[in-house]
Fold these 4 entries.
Entry 1:
Amino acid sequence: QVQLVESGGGLVQPGGSLKLSCTVSGIPFRDYIMKWYRQAPGKERDFVARIESYTGATRYADSVSGRFTISRDNAKNMAFLQMDSLKPEDTAVYYCNAQWRYGNTREYWGQGTQVTVSS
């Protein structure tokens, strides 16, 4: 079975930091592009960040560029999202996504982890 499990979410004050983790099993991790998405209540699920499997190339949504950093550890089958300078607008459920690097025909999702930024 394929499994993506997020962890690290929680409550943080504005300006604070959190680091999310995604542990992947059941697929050849190095053949997948790893991504993070987020969804706030009543809104669509939006792209946050992605990282390539071998080159390490990254891409970010404009709303998080300069504040969030995506990374991966291929030896541990894990992806991460370091979130700094958090804003209330970052409050959402954050989802880990694995997309086959050879096309969009294979894709898997985690169950999500809640991030709440509030005083």
Entry 2:
Amino acid sequence: QVQLVESGGGLVQAGGSLRLSCAASGRTFNSYPMGWFRRAPGEEREFVAAISWSGDRTYYTDSVKGRFTISRDNAKNTVYLQMNSLKPEDTAVYYCGARLGSNWFSRYDYGYWGQGTQVTVSS
């Protein structure tokens, strides 16, 4: 019912910024909390940030607090991840998903994953 497409990734030097977008299709987009996860080389997909359907609640993994901001524009069916002060350890493929379960932080409680967008931070 929901299809997601990530964009906005690229190559950036340490300390730089990127804004990722996740465009959704489907009439039920506004009903879902949304999250960003990332998968670094040789690692499992891990939680980055999440946002409630209305945008009034947000959650972040400790390593990105103060640097990343998740937001959504339901009129545009889009969720964003603004990434500032990027570090080499942020290098990963970033995915967005719709939260289908009850756990904000577990990849197993999300679905409708997009194909991902590559973020590479050099130093």
Entry 3:
Amino acid sequence: QVNMVESGGGLVQAGGSLRLSCAASGRTFSSYAMGWFRQAPGKEREFVAGLNWRGESTDYADSVKGRFTISRDNAKNTVYLQMTNLKPEDTAVYYCAATRSPFLRVGGVYEYWGQGTQVTVSS
């Protein structure tokens, strides 16, 4: 079992920045690849960013590429999502997740999920 808790969401104006954090516990954090997903009201969950087991390889959705950065600090058992130049269409609940699969864009491969943190971007 891996328990994960997201934090750092909030209300921000378009063009602003936020950094989301996801603190994990219960298993060896460094053995899992990590991903960030988001879900807006009435829409399906979508992949945002992924980071492999060792943190040397990243993957991003086209909609956030160049604006968002995923990183991890294994010593702190924490994964981050640095979001810059936020847009109203980024408004969603953001979830972190952990997987032992290399297919980071596929939500179904993630074994553990956090409860989510709300990000709201005003125009």
Entry 4:
Amino acid sequence: QVQLVESGGGLVPPGGSLRLSCATSGSIASLNVMDWYRQAPGKQRELVARITSGGSTNYADSVKGRFTISRDNAKNTLYLQMNSLKPEDTAIYYCHTYIFPRNSWGQGTQVTVSS
């Protein structure tokens, strides 16, 4: 098992930037895949970004070019840099990983994009 704790959410105006962090209880170098998901009010949870231990990344089309996922193995922390934020980015953002045989989720951090 691994514990995940998100931070960095808050209120930001459209066009602004925010960096989310996900602190883990162990070495993230041992985690093959780490993800950021989000869930907006009244909508289902969706995958936003993914990074592998080898550094490969994937992004949802809605955030491609604006968001960057990264990991700092020395700090055992996953990041999501969010630029050019839009109101439709408003959601609770969750850190996620999978270690057989279980999924691990953080509690989430609220991001609100509003003027």
